[in-house]
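Moderator note: this is an archived Q&A kept for reference. The question asked for a predicted structure of one protein chain; the sequence and the answer are reproduced below.
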Amino acid sequence: MMDFLELIVKEVVPETKEAKTYVLENVNGDPFDYEAGQFLTLVLEFNGHEVRRSYSMGSAPGIDDRLYITVKRKENGEISRHLLEHLKPGDIIRAVPPSGRFTIQADPTAERHFFFLAAGSGIVPVFSLIKSLLKAEPRSHITLLYQNHDETTIIYHRELQLLEEQYPHQFTRIDLLSHPLLHDLPARRLNNGLLEHLVGIHEPRPFRHKEQQPATLFYTCGPPSFMRMVQFTLRVMGYAEDQLFKEHFTIPVLPPPALVIDPQPKKVQLRYDGKDYEYSVTYPTSILQAALDLNIELPYSCKGGRCATCTARCVSGEVKMSNNEVLTEKDLEKGLVLTCVGFAASDVRLEI
């Protein structure tokens, strides 16, 4: 059985009219093991059934003494509305241990330029990464482009101001407001032309590489249309795919996979948390869903191939994935697969 975290809400901090920060601690007092940029998947009982929702951590290990997530109200979002209206100090909630691949391996000797492009609550994992990098990579520079509706919707507004004051030579912050309340502020919405202009101004050496590693990296988090625009524009500008990273907040329901797989039952041998499992799976049922149907509790969150919580290593056999937006070519070369969108094309042996 999977070991869930039991968390107690220690404090609730209002951020904006639509967002609150929840400070969390392990009920048993154990410290958290996580990386900047990762998320927590809450396991909730809602209307008589279990639902899972992932929320990024705005805190950064080694910098913040308490872990916290920030939740923003989503339009037609039943779960976010439920949490914002009912979750209070003293409440106990369950969660899958922290996961996610929107992370950065810091190098204290590196001289890199990080562009962070965030919209709305997309600032949450970005804020965690920025704090971590400012401390861990003192020779690198960070430029933040942050899109919001107006001044009142800026999450972590005061904390970002403090970082600007503390790291004036390492950190550049650019706020973009589509409907500013102050008349002396320009109304700006990030689009292809503005993005190209701003990157051109703030990136004097866009294609310099050191030891085959890109010196300029882009990390994006926000609505799908925002991220598509950013990715498209940067590729047109000449930046390579290995310089661009993104974190998804919206997970669409995937249609049945159009994969050519023999519809005969396949055997799955799986090792997870020191235990061995063996079961049968038949296309079009995914490896993860077949396990869940047998009450084998494996880690998962999005079920859409976008968060990597369900990642496993394929030791033998062949797994075909209907979607993959998180695993890199290097990950695939190591045999990593996503079980939520992974289908056994043969008998397989997996490790989680």
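Archived answer notes: Confidence is low (pLDDT under 50) at residues 206-210.
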